Amino acid sequence: MKKKQTLAQRINIMRASVMGANDGILSVAGIVIGVAGATTNNFAIFISGISGMLAGTVSMAMGEYVSVNTQKDAQRRAIMNQKDALAKNYDDEFNFVKQKYVDDGIDSQLAEQATSEMMDQDSLVTTVRERYGFDVGEYTSPYAAAISSMISFPIGSILPLLAITMLPASIRIIGTFVAVVIALAITGFSAATLGNAKRGNAVVRNIVSGMLTMIVTYVIGTLIGHL
Known about the structure:
- This is VIT family protein.
- It holds the Pfam family VIT1.
- The protein is mainly alpha-helical.
- The protein has a domain at 7-79 and 141-225.
- It has helices at residues 7-38, 42-88, 90-103, 108-132, 142-166, 172-195, 199-225.
């Protein structure tokens, strides 16, 4: 029977999806607006956007796969180190866990009792959780993270690509700009919610970075188009 994913694992996969969509929006918006600054040829703009979408999809998927595997390797190394530490200095590990609880405001006697019970049940799980902040065996799947990014990146890319090619020439730059800003506000809010961070700061940061990207690429495209 397949083991059910934990909440942390599901959140990590959702994070990969949100960030994949965010990168898709921002990357392709930068490309198509930059090209639109250099030429009014719809086909050239469309092809550049599609190329960016395909390249970004593969890049994001591979990046997530490598990143999550690297994280898993680091966690496995931490577990090996902790096994060695428990074998050589069990008392030191016991005192470390107990002191963490005391520092958190738990009475010393109660902290010792809690530590003793948890260490007797599974000393490795207890010490890894308290020292490194993750649970043994609860790894994010690199395949799930890669697939979620591979799906979400092109979905995010569709918005700026459609806006720049479907809107009338007179408003396509500003229309794409506005559409991307709205989309980045949504992904910034979603990412902050998943990470339990301040939503306002995340939204503003995401919008500002997106605006700067589009402005810079448009200016560069315009300059190149006038050469």
